[in-house]
Amino acid sequence: MKITSLCFIASALLLSACAHNTAGISVDSSGLVRVDSTSFASDINVTNISSHRVADLLKASALIQSKSSTDLRVQYKFTWFDANGLTVEDEASSWKSVKLHGMQQLQVSGVAPNAQAIRFEIYVRETFSY
Questions:
Q1: Could you tell me which of 29, 25, 22 has the C-alpha nearest to residue 121?
Q2: Out of 16-25, 43-52, 71-80, 105-114, least confident range
């Protein structure tokens, strides 16, 4: 019994140490901003949201701006939506990591996985090195 309890507690601690902070900022293709972490939003801004069609696929871009004088490690991800508001091949889209130096701006872009995508959201979150 003690060994089972000890294994359970050790597993729980190990999993919680590996948990990622998913709070951040999201901006949709219409420019609507959602802030899930006000402290992160004081360090990062996402602007210049745009999109256009390239060979029937939606291509999106955004400018990620650091408002901090120190280096920040962030991840961003584009999520694509069809006319019904459903995600389009969400598993195919992965988080991309970048390092922003103090006050740096970085233009990022993504291309929809298929022609059904008509709008998108970009989500930006802080990452931490352990």
A1: 29
A2: 16-25
Three-class DSSP category at 25: strand
Tell me the per-residue pLDDT of 37-83, one tens digit each, with 9 for 90 and over.
999 999 999 999 999 999 999 999 999 999 999 999 999 999 999 99
Burial 48-65 (b: 16+ CB within 10 A, else e): ebebeeeeeebbbebebb
Q: Which residues face 69 on adjacent strands?
A: none
**What pLDDT score does 25 carry?**
97
Backbone region of residue 89 per phi and psi (left: phi > 0; alpha: psi in -120 to 50; beta: other values): left
Report the distance separating Cα 48 and Cα 36, nearest Å: 20
Residue with tokens 């939606």: 58
Residues paired with 26 in a beta bridge: 34, 123
- Measure CA 83 to chain center: 22
